[in-house]
Amino acid sequence: MLLNLFDYERAARERVAASAWDYQAGGANDEVTLRANRAAWEAIEIRYRTMVDVSRRAMATTVLGVPVSMPILVAPTAMQKLAHPDGESGMARAAAAAGALLVVSTTATTGLSDVAAVEPASPKWFQVYVYAGREHTEALVAQAVAAGYRALMLTVDTPVLGRRERDIRSGFTLPAGMQIANAVEAGMGAVPTATGEASGLMRHFRGLHDPSIAPRDIQWLRDLSGLPVVVKGIVRGDDARRAIDHGASAIVVSNHGGRQLDTAIATARALPEVVAAVDGQVEVYVDGGIRRGSDVLKALAMGARGVLVGRPPVWGLAVDGAAGAQHVLELLRDELDLAMALAGCPSLSDITPDLLAGAGAR
Ligand SMILES: Cc1cc2nc3c(=O)[nH]c(=O)nc-3n(C[C@H](O)[C@H](O)[C@H](O)COP(=O)(O)O)c2cc1C
């Protein structure tokens, strides 16, 4: 039975090739942060309200002015054809069917214009990794604007790729017939094979990605695109302020799902500092280890406008293509609805900091 996201995790594991599974599931080094992300949400206790009329509940909201059916967004995850042949196109159909905003990765196995053409009316943002050959990123950004993406999401926690030892051990690279479509289209060639000390993806990053990302790149992307820039991968208040001072329209508190710097702070613990530093000036989102509707409730109570989920929709895709990914999003929606009812929150504006105790209390 597929009753919750962990059921999908188990089912996906049976369907995905071992090295692809390790790539999707794994984290950096000892995977301390990967576990800590999850544990931190679990540790926060909810001081639920009673005797509130919760017979009518609503969770539709907006993110950067874009209407969405729920405060749960699909995080950018690379190479979705590893999970299912429908890959990014299947994910786009799932997000549209669930009324969720989709963030499409630079490192996708489907070109960004092709993903945009799937359910074109459904809102999408394009996640940017900056290539050392800046002209390649400029071309991708121009393509993203033409294709109707509503915002850019600049990932700043990945100046170089984290050390994912599962991928080094397995010699992970893309199987024949799959490529990072945006890189190939820009003339940057195929993902290399693995060597004994580096996965194919590590070598791809080393060869092509720019490790000199700076705050001025936020303004650069704004000027190039005319789109709002969401900065993803922040865990400190001062970094959030620097991003805003350089034109960021929103912040994602994220440690890349524990895949970059191991022993990095869990996102649930970083969120309050960032929310306080941002002080309502821009929207703040959070990701990492969100697996239950009650986690979403906690994130919102801490001041997040919304959450992103990375691995879970990929598990859904692996199990049943677009329908599976949609079901994962609907399960989370139903769980958030239940958590709102049981916490005495008929609307999102009722989800306030006083609902939290313990580690989440401010
Ligand atoms: C398989 C996989 C691929 C990812 N690829 C990207 C990517 O291309 N760009 C990016 O900004 N983040 C990427 N991430 C990080 C996610 O956007 C997100 O921050 C993280 O998965 C959230 O944690 P969760 O998986 O526990 O929900 C990836 C994560 C995973 C698991």
Provide keyphrases for this structure.
alpha/beta; 43% helix; two-stranded antiparallel sheet; 362 residues; TIM Barrel; binds flavin mononucleotide
Provide a compact summary of the structure.
This protein has 362 residues and is of the alpha/beta class. The chain has one domain (5-347): TIM Barrel, CATH 3.20.20.70. The protein has helices at 5-15, 18-25, 32-43, 87-98, 112-116, 134-147, 165-170, 181-185, 200-208, 216-225, 237-245, 267-278, 293-301, 311-342; strands spanning 44-46, 61-63, 66-68, 72-74, 102-104, 124-128, 151-155, 229-234, 250-253, 283-287, 306-309, 356-358.
Q: Let me know the number of strands.
A: 12
Q: Provide the CATH superfamily.
A: Aldolase class I
Q: Give a quick account of the main beta sheet: strands, pairing sense, barrel closure.
A: 8 strands, parallel
Under the CATH scheme, which class? Answer: Alpha Beta
The N- and C-terminal alpha carbons lie at a distance of: 38 Å
Mean of residue pLDDT values = 96
Strand order of the largest sheet: 4-11-10-9-8-7-6-5
What does the radius of gyration come to? 19 Å
Could you say what the CATH architecture is?
Answer: Alpha-Beta Barrel
